[in-house]
Amino acid sequence: MILLDEDRLFPTEGRGRELARALFDSVRDLPIISPHGHTDPRWLAGNERFGNPADLFVTPDHYVFRMLYSQGIRLEDLGIETLAGEKSATDPREVWRLFAAHYHVFRGTPSRLWIDHSLQEVFGVEKGLSAETADEIYEQISDCLGRPEFLPRALFDRFNIEVIATTESPLDTLDHHARVAASDWGGRMISTYRPDAVMDPENPDFLNNLKVFSEITGEDALSWDGYLKAHRKRRLRFKAYGATATDHGHPTARTENLSQQAARELFNAVLRDPTDAGNAEMFRAQMLTEMARMSLDDGLVMQIHAGSRRNHSSAIHRRFGADKGFDIPGRTDFVTALGPLLDVVGHEPDMTVILFTLDESSYGRELAPLAGVYPALKLGPAWWFFDSADGMRRFREMTTETAGFYNTVGFNDDTRAFCSIPARHDVARRVDCAFLASLVTSGRLGETDAFEVVQDLTYHLAKKAYRL
Amino acid sequence: MILLDEDRLFPTEGRGRELARALFDSVRDLPIISPHGHTDPRWLAGNERFGNPADLFVTPDHYVFRMLYSQGIRLEDLGIETLAGEKSATDPREVWRLFAAHYHVFRGTPSRLWIDHSLQEVFGVEKGLSAETADEIYEQISDCLGRPEFLPRALFDRFNIEVIATTESPLDTLDHHARVAASDWGGRMISTYRPDAVMDPENPDFLNNLKVFSEITGEDALSWDGYLKAHRKRRLRFKAYGATATDHGHPTARTENLSQQAARELFNAVLRDPTDAGNAEMFRAQMLTEMARMSLDDGLVMQIHAGSRRNHSSAIHRRFGADKGFDIPGRTDFVTALGPLLDVVGHEPDMTVILFTLDESSYGRELAPLAGVYPALKLGPAWWFFDSADGMRRFREMTTETAGFYNTVGFNDDTRAFCSIPARHDVARRVDCAFLASLVTSGRLGETDAFEVVQDLTYHLAKKAYRL
Amino acid sequence: MILLDEDRLFPTEGRGRELARALFDSVRDLPIISPHGHTDPRWLAGNERFGNPADLFVTPDHYVFRMLYSQGIRLEDLGIETLAGEKSATDPREVWRLFAAHYHVFRGTPSRLWIDHSLQEVFGVEKGLSAETADEIYEQISDCLGRPEFLPRALFDRFNIEVIATTESPLDTLDHHARVAASDWGGRMISTYRPDAVMDPENPDFLNNLKVFSEITGEDALSWDGYLKAHRKRRLRFKAYGATATDHGHPTARTENLSQQAARELFNAVLRDPTDAGNAEMFRAQMLTEMARMSLDDGLVMQIHAGSRRNHSSAIHRRFGADKGFDIPGRTDFVTALGPLLDVVGHEPDMTVILFTLDESSYGRELAPLAGVYPALKLGPAWWFFDSADGMRRFREMTTETAGFYNTVGFNDDTRAFCSIPARHDVARRVDCAFLASLVTSGRLGETDAFEVVQDLTYHLAKKAYRL
């Protein structure tokens, strides 16, 4: 049995299918550009073997365990440790069996497509995962993981990754990146400056993080001027490890452009009471504009991921911590919110701000019209819950007519799951090919143009937008 | 002439059409599970003949008369009585002619599909309804209605209904359900506990309703403790008549989890001034959480229908009363609103809360992510204005990738029109078959899986979610 | 080479394509009804030759220059004059070359489809526009423009326009309309009453505009009663020049129904401080209801275009003025906002209010339910950013099932670009044919009905709704 349909995600009939195939053939072997993601830099730095199938597919993947949890399976039984270090299921084989027995609940989801892709293409599995096949497939993957061609750097080469970005806090030591830089490994792994930990007063560790920030930069990050200097210094350090971008995960897209005096006072107020929600929101807003100003100087591309209401269940947050599937989107305004930042950098030809949303109703109404006029704005690809075949299709259908293709930036896999990288790029390429084929067969795009556009969407736009 | 295309609602070409047909063949004869609706229990209790064609198709169906009203036809001329009992058109044949002469305005609407289905499949009509055919079709239906095989229980059998739920207020005597329980009829008709009349302070009869609630339960429903006891008692009475669920039609999805002391004070404030909009909203919010707590005890599944702004035209409301087509949806937030309730019952494996929305922008952004992680949450099918072919398709397209199929609960016909029940289930089954076929032909779902899923969507998920 | 695919925008396969073709053949030669647009009345009044290709395709078209600006091209280099009268590029040939060299950024946009249509169908161009072909095509268009068959009235006849509406402020002298009325030209060009300049206190010229309004009407427009009289008088003047409609471009759809005493006080408050945002919004809201009342008297159809946040970049607004591509939509509420106006005129059978939105999330949730019940309400076609193939398809998919076809009003080209008129109607007709074909092939509409509906959508609904 073959898990994957060769023509998956293409139009289902006639000339559309043929054209999508031809378009896909022209880009399927292009290198992967992965300018935004969350893989662990330790993997490529250390090149140590991955653990076991449960470690690889279940325990770290919030797409997977949230769905299982929604069906009444306890996180403990999936090998998720509590913050206190409790862990019910210690046998990864039991975790894998539980996962396999419930694999049908993933029908119709992107997780299913990614996992089937990894199983077949990375590990050569040719049987559908189920309670019956669980043990056999577990053995097959385990066996692979012990072989040199399944070490992280070997997979990096096999996946044809030209460049991969990881994401680090300013407080990160960047040791893994340093280790890669000092090694003779030829692969390109770069960092991304993600300063949420020192920009979000509502982070419970905020004040302590500022102290560490001071230590790591040698600046007084508890004064406004020192705080800004610390950012500037740290950004340069990240650049030294290849970073070409910053990333900002904020609950809203709100920006502010206060006077420096007002910003200083706000900073001091936030230091006195970081839990004041109004000041915290305004501080994050102001800092986006400060980051934009720094980008004008040091050239780092700015990414704004807005709209996730994190840790919706406080019970789960208290017991298991963040990123446990309880980050729920909410309505997101961009039009008013981005005004102050755009007044400062929106017309700068050398500035790039890439926007991501979890509120699809803003695609056509707000994001495409904004990106379709401000030179600094570009649209990031469909994000998170919408990193899926239908999600990507809707992204193109709702943004292309207003913003075109050339205000978008190609694909981000945005993944923590190393083995899903080729699967995710495969889905994105196929969906774009299907979309382009539908434009051609409905007379909206010339065939020659389509072959040029698909190269841009797959490769050139990401390299250009992220300055890679 | 045949009114219905045998392949209606299927993909229009090739393998997709064939597969949709095959899927549909596998479920077309499954019994109808109707766990949520508004048919009159008197029909099955009394098994008396239905009136005339206008009574059956026009006068009680707000989908039909609102559209005719929008085209300038007066409600009076459609046989709708005013609250004062005025009625211009007393001849149902005239109402029918008016309807028939304007039948073209329903082109492209689900009403048209339902009515054509009822005309052809229930009454054997083979001509399109129009001014020309109005009288002939009127006679044909009238003739049928006089025959025993068109009595309600005969139709119930012919429609292959396994179970049907009606919806009653706590103030309802449940006489019709008692009559069925005492009879030797083998059909299964159950009630649903819909306490809006005693939970919505803005209902003009609220205070009076509480008095009746006291009488009917023997509790003092004008004290907080007595009020809660009255609910608990009445819920058990509904369970005795087969109820497995409660239903809540609220303007928003707001929930609260006040202390019992604060809730008591709120209740007293509401008794003093039920028209205070802020208190009324908070009381409804608190009561959803109280209902959830009771569900934990008595096992009734909870349904929340949120987002309809009722009686948009106060002139029509004053003259004709509620449910006259002027209930208009509005934006609906679920993420913040449901937080308090989910803190209480969201992680309970034995709890089921089924959510319905009239704000499609919340499908992908809020509802699917919430149902895709909270064990207690399930998504109800596309509701009301979206109980239509395109509406159902969008529901699947916007929720499946995040919540999967197994956090949904099958179909509700939600109808007041008895003869439309098979038509509505027919549409739902066809749309699901088309969706599944499209997943298979685009390589996103195995064919064997699709045949299993379609059984679940048609039959098993509804039985399981509603505990039937 | 042919720029246009003969079957563009039709379903891509099988019977759907054939049927769409047949439907289109039945309406492709129907006259154009253009009841809402922004072409310059001077063109048809004076019948003077159009300038040069850049003047025709680039400089006046905000769809075109905003996209070029988003790609880093300065407005000055596109021949856009600053308010101060500065203009960098004086050679239209250079502007044209810049446009041609960037023509690829329009791939997938409606602008591309419109321009290709104009190039091929109006000017006989058979080569794709690019840096290489720029000069040749420039010559070809220039050559055409000098010939009598390319004068405005000749094009009007060739485009088969039955009637075209322009849009004027109450302060406009209507000279061009007077000139047409006095001429022996047989074409029908009518005005539309667009009173924003004297209804929006936040217009910086508001107070001065009221003075001009007084002069032009002979009423004291600085008193409430005189102001209303001035409107009534001026509306009649517009009617004398053929106007059948008013048009209102408001940031929101808010309406109010204050007592005349309260309205008078509001008017006086607004005169004292027109910059008070709250009062300004309430005044616009009140004036929509006043306009509705006047429509009851004089029969002008009312159009409400709500939801554009104008001049998002204050820098561009200060330097170049309005309509420079920086009008960005925002979320728009209709349900609560329209309540007061609908209480006054919503049930009037002789009233027509046509609604337009830039917030697609309101199509199914708010607009279709409202238009599907209020006799006075009709839905305008997909507007502005959504005046595109996918935008129109979504409009039909999201409104038809609830509002049907007969609560819609056909197509508006809404254009400033004379040569794009046939292109835009061509797109609208094709999209409607594709939609109808898809309804027929999926068994939701009879084929005979589809041929009747397509006549209505193309011709009759616009004539009826706009009383033409």
Automatic annotation (TrEMBL), chains A, B, C:
Pfam families: UxaC (PF02614). It is an enzyme of class 5 (isomerase). Keywords: Isomerase. Its EC number is 5.3.1.12. It catalyses: aldehydo-D-galacturonate = keto-D-tagaturonate; D-glucuronate = D-fructuronate. The keyword Cell inner membrane does not apply. SUPFAM superfamilies: Metallo-dependent hydrolases. Transmembrane segments: none annotated. The keyword Isomerase applies. It comes from the Bacteria. InterPro entries: Metal_Hydrolase, Uronate_isomerase. Belongs to the metallo-dependent hydrolases superfamily. Uronate isomerase family. This is Uronate isomerase. It comes from Shimia abyssi.
